[in-house]
Amino acid sequence: MLFSFMPKLDGTHLPERLEKRLADLRSDKEVVKRDLEALLSDEQVAAMNAAWTEQQVLRTVKRARDKEEERALGWKSKREVHIEAYEQALAAAQDGELEALLERMNKSEVRAAKIYLSSYFAARDENKDAYQADLAAKNALKRAHLGQVERKKRNTRDEEVRAMEDAIRAQIRKKMTPDELEQIEMSEEHERAANKGGQRTAAKAGKGGK
Fold it and tell me: What's the sign of the alpha-carbon dihedral 145, 139, 147, 117?
């Protein structure tokens, strides 16, 4: 897997960091060795150092009289070697970004499922009905910052998380009695009506403020 060749950073943030460091190199900004190697894996650092060693050997084997001849012989400056290393690292990180995202989402989804199920059944053990237990579980998710994201802030990734949460609730519903299921559906209908009412009130307030 690609992750074995990456440093221990969140793969969804790594491309952005690599792009910034690459921009620094391209603009001739000084980048110290520690910072240069911080975003690269051990394998990538080794490859970069090996590329520079090859350049040093090349300079002793093939002499050049001017810049044009240096290019023809394949000479590269140390900064150019670093830029190439970062370009390759960025390409690899971008290829692995989706895999990193899915890995992070999976961890979040598993945690959300455990929190929801634990809270739901704990509430049921306290003799709360299905509606109360569902509310308790949703509140537990919100406290853990895993609650449902507002629609205006969602993107494709958020929709996938929402789909997983829906799947969790679907599994819960399968274990409910008809009466419990009816209570949940009535609760959801009430929530939808309340949300619509709130949106209409906000819209009126917005018009009134103009």
Answer: positive
pTM of structure? 0.42
Mean pLDDT of the chain: 75
Q: Does the CA dihedral 145-146-147-151 come out positive or negative?
A: positive
Residue at 65 is within a domain: yes
User: What is the spatial distance between Cα 7 and Cα 42, in angstroms, rounded to a whole number?
Assistant: 7
Residue 6 dihedral angles phi and psi, to the nearest 5°: -115, 155
Report how many domains make up the chain: 2
**Is residue 103 included in any domain, yes or no?**
no
Per-residue pLDDT, 29: 92
Distance CA 174, CA 20 (A): 49
Q: pLDDT grade, residue 154 (50/70/90)?
A: very low
Query: How many other C-beta atoms can be found within 10 angstroms of the C-beta atom of residue 127?
Result: 8
Cβ neighbours of residue 203 under 8 Å, at least 6 residues apart? none
Contact in structure between 42 and 21 (CB atoms under 8 Å): no
Q: 25 is written with which tokens?
A: 């190199």
What are 21's two structure tokens? 């460091």
Q: How long is the chain?
A: 210
Structural domain containing residue 48? 2-98
Check if the beta carbon of residue 132 is closer than 8 Å to that of residue 183.
no
